[in-house]
Design brief:
Radius of gyration: 20 Å
Distance between the termini: 68 Å
Helix content: 25-40%
Mean pLDDT: 89
Number of helices: 6
Largest sheet: 5 strands, antiparallel
Structural class: alpha+beta
Strand content: 15-25%
Number of strands: 11
């Protein structure tokens, strides 16, 4: 009689690792306005670094319900995954050492600079994707955002790279109504990947889009973006809508549907409304 076939153990997914793994706090990231803890997470032989943001460490905001930022971060990840672009690191909602919170995979940044930098550009965060230039026009490969004060009565032109990865992120931000897309929230990772992080102030029913990625404002959406928005529209009518309903309010889910429908109807990137500051402060 032959021995039974051994079935190799199933590998642990990143979502399982983050949701089920044991969290060990290594320290606090003190630059953040809310409690942000750097942790190790381990589960069934797999280990990684992650960020844990407990709900108990969230500071109240006048325009968002208390204790909801962690859920909004997870909702942003769910929408990102539904586009097929994978712009947000894996993110789950779970219990941790300080109660329920958001747990997100830590993204290691590659060593060295970005080949977009050159001597006449004053990097303003975003690892070469954003810059201040002493010029009236952005130049080849860059998109203008607007004039910025740089001290002593001087201004410079704030620009971002004319980069397909940033353009996808600009579409995602328009869908989730991101009120805080800063340069420091852009993480160029190994292999050419670009991630966006810090999506706690998103999904408001009012138009609060604040971003440094206005360079395509009013321009036609790419065919790729239209396809992604159509996937979102279908998902919001089914499983994605149901999942978001577990994380944000019904009115906020409806507003997300309306933003997707509006983008598809116009076929263009949104423009600043004039009713809300268009650029976050500080910008980085």
């Amino acid at each position: 009689m032959s021995a039974p076939e051994r079935i190799p153990p199933r590998s642990v997914t990143t979502a399982e690792l983050l949701a089920e793994g044991e969290l060990t706090v290594r320290g606090r990231i003190r630059e953040a306005s809310n409690a942000v803890l750097l942790c190790d997470v381990s589960y069934q032989g797999r280990e990684a670094s992650c960020v844990y943001k407990p709900v108990a460490g969230e500071r109240p905001l006048w325009d968002f319900p208390d204790g909801t930022l962690a859920q909004r971060e997870v909702a942003a990840y769910e929408v990102s995954e539904a586009t097929g672009w994978g712009l947000v690191p894996a993110t789950v909602l779970r219990d941790g050492p300080y109660g329920q919170g958001m747990c997100q995979l830590w993204i290691e940044l590659p060593q060295g600079g970005d080949d977009r930098d050159d001597d006449d550009r004053d990097d303003e965060g975003g690892a070469g994707l954003l810059a201040l230039v002493d010029a009236e026009e952005p130049g080849d490969g860059w998109k203008a955002v607007g004039r910025a004060e740089v001290g002593e009565g001087r201004t410079a032109l704030l620009v971002h790279a004319d980069d397909d990865r940033l353009r996808r992120l600009a579409v995602l931000d328009a869908v989730i109504n991101n009120a805080d897309r800063k340069g420091g929230h852009l993480l160029p990772a190994a292999g050419g990947r670009l991630y966006g992080i810090d999506h706690g102030v998103t999904f408001n029913v009012e138009n609060k889009l604040r971003t440094l990625l206005w360079g395509w404002a009013g321009e036609k959406l790419t065919p790729e973006a239209v396809e992604a928005l159509e996937r979102l529209r279908d998902g919001l009518a089914g499983p994605l809508g149901a999942r978001l309903g577990e994380l944000i309010t019904g009115a906020e889910v409806d507003a997300t549907r309306a933003r997707v429908d509006g983008l598809l109807a116009s076929g263009r990137h949104p423009e600043p409304s004039g009713e809300w500051p268009a650029i976050p402060w500080p910008p980085v």
